[in-house]
Amino acid sequence: EDQVTQSPEALRLQEGESSSLNCSYTVSGLRGLFWYRQDPGKGPEFLFTLYSAGEEKEKERLKATLTKKESFLHITAPKPEDSATYLCAVQARFGSARQLTFGSGTQLTVLP
Amino acid sequence: EAQVTQNPRYLITVTGKKLTVTCSQNMNHEYMSWYRQDPGLGLRQIYYSMNVEVTDKGDVPEGYKVSRKEKRNFPLILESPSPNQTSLYFCASSLSREASAEAFFGQGTRLTVV
């Protein structure tokens, strides 16, 4: 069974204080790993897709990396507007047509 | 504007009273799905649809029904809602099931069953 575990559950940072969020996964052959951002009262918003170990993607202050067992979302010099819940999800290469298995998310708060 | 639209946004209902949550997308996407989001459990897939008239169960399908008669619409039906179906529901669509197809999510429907 595919599983995704995110840590920490919650993270509070001062503005400008860089950090990383972790996503550990087990999947029967990884087709893709996804990162989403979710603001309160809204649906998740797509950030990145990673396909293979060693791959990196960047968007503004965010950089996502992937190994064979986990992914990291690095946040460099965060701003208060980066406050949100960040969700990680995986899609298996084999098995059912079910699309994504999500983790529980990391709630990030960036204080001014 | 590309979007997934769910209605209603908020719904309070009583146990056993049938309800439907609508979902519509304007991107001509093939793949659509329904998720529920509960604290500590993350997003769990209820049902998905690969295309018109093609639907299948996700991880937590009990108590739910879906239909896909048109490509753009994918309603979620609760025939006899129970309090354990109180949750935040999201509809999502993507061009296909493939990994390169990012999923677009609706704004969510907060359902309370009393």
Can you put this structure into words, describing what you see?
The complex is a heterodimer of chains A (112) and B (114). Chain A has strands at 3-7, 10-14, 19-26, 30-38, 45-50, 56-59, 62-66, 70-75, 84-92, 101-102, 106-111. With 112 residues, chain A is mainly β. The radius of gyration of chain A is 14 Å and the shape is globular. Chain B is mainly beta and 114 residues long. Chain B contains no helices and eleven strands. Chain B starts with a strand and ends with a strand. Classes of the chains: A mainly beta (112), B mainly beta (114). At the A-B interface, strand 4, strand 5 and strand 9 of A face strand 4, strand 5, strand 9 and strand 10 of B.
Secondary-structure topology with pairs:
The complex is a heterodimer of chains A (112) and B (114).
Chain A: E1 3-7, E2 10-14, E3 19-26, E4 30-38, E5 45-50, E6 56-59, E7 62-66, E8 70-75, E9 84-92, E10 101-102, E11 106-111
Parallel strand pairs in A: 2-11
Antiparallel strand pairs in A: 1-3, 3-8, 4-5, 4-9, 6-7, 7-8, 9-10, 9-11
Chain B: E1 4-7, E2 10-13, E3 19-25, E4 31-38, E5 42-51, E6 54-57, E7 65-66, E8 76-78, E9 87-94, E10 104-105, E11 109-113
Parallel strand pairs in B: 2-11
Antiparallel strand pairs in B: 1-3, 3-8, 4-5, 4-9, 5-6, 7-8, 9-10, 9-11
